[in-house]
Design a protein that fits this description.
globular; cytoplasm; two-stranded antiparallel ribbon; CutC-like; 8 helices; TIM Barrel; alpha/beta; 251 residues; copper ion binding; 10 strands; eight-stranded parallel beta sheet
């Protein structure tokens, strides 16, 4: 039976509860998924641990944007990895690039040391690096457990050939976790093509706000986003993905 993992990216307690109820294996917990996710707050982490029994890896990303961090941002990352290790997170999801697009191995090594016995994953900084095969080997050498990647594309399906190559060359030394635009239909095509059965998805849908009074012209958020249309993980979408992986295991 082939090993499989379904990880759901969640940025609120309700999404984490929905993923747990649907049978996901793991949560990548973040805040502000609308901008790609940044480090979550302690209260969110504690509540997810309180209301779910699922494994939780915490995204460590100090800000929106690129993955080349200054000294203050690196200090923040070090504080965060130690904090979440002490709070009992199952893993941390992190990544730092140098200005030339290569993995910042020296700083990553320090974060890896501070992570202690937590699992560590290289997040989609991998998809912005200049040499993916070199970066994969560096992640293996660092002792990281996972690379989260869309095959250097925004969606896993667009990056399918790179994902296939990564999976083959990783040879089981590190988990290749396919990400980007994932749903059950994509998985049906992607898994047999690449061999990858470690899947990352948000399963998000738009949920209408509870607000009945809606003040026009008062938005403080992204100008392209309706503040009364909220993102939330769909229990049904995660169930569909779980079923795809079950079908693969039973073949």
């Amino acid at each position: 039976m082939k090993h499989s993992v379904l990880e759901v990216c969640a940025d609120c307690v309700q999404s984490a509860v929905n993923a747990d109820n649907a049978g996901a294996d793991r949560i990548e917990l973040c805040s502000n998924l609308v901008i790609g996710g940044v480090t979550p707050g302690i209260a969110l982490f504690k509540l997810v641990k309180k209301y779910t029994d699922i494994k939780v890896r915490v995204l460590l990303r100090p800000r929106y944007g690129d993955y080349c961090y200054n000294a203050y941002e690196f200090e923040q990352l070090k504080e965060e990895v130690q904090m979440y290790r002490e709070l009992g997170a199952d893993g941390s999801v992190m990544g730092i690039l140098r200005p030339d697009g290569r993995l910042d191995v020296e700083r990553m090594s320090e974060l890896e040391r501070l992570a202690g016995n937590m699992d560590t994953a290289l997040h989609r900084a991998f998809d912005a690096c200049i040499n993916p095969m070199e970066t994969m080997e560096q992640a293996v050498s660092l002792g990281m457990k996972t690379i989260l990647t869309g095959g250097q594309c925004g969606s896993a399906w667009d990056g399918r050939e790179m994902l296939k190559e990564l999976y083959e060359k990783s040879a089981g030394r590190i988990e290749i976790l396919a990400a980007g635009g994932i749903n059950a239909d994509v998985m049906d095509k992607l898994i047999p093509l690449t061999g990858i059965t470690s899947i990352h998805m948000s399963g998000k849908i738009e949920v209408d706000s509870m607000m009945t009074y809606r003040k026009a012209g008062s938005s403080m958020g992204l100008p392209e986003r309706d503040e009364y249309a909220l993102w939330q993980t769909s229990e049904e979408k995660v169930k569909q993905a779980v079923q795809v992986l079950k079908n693969v295991q039973n073949k």
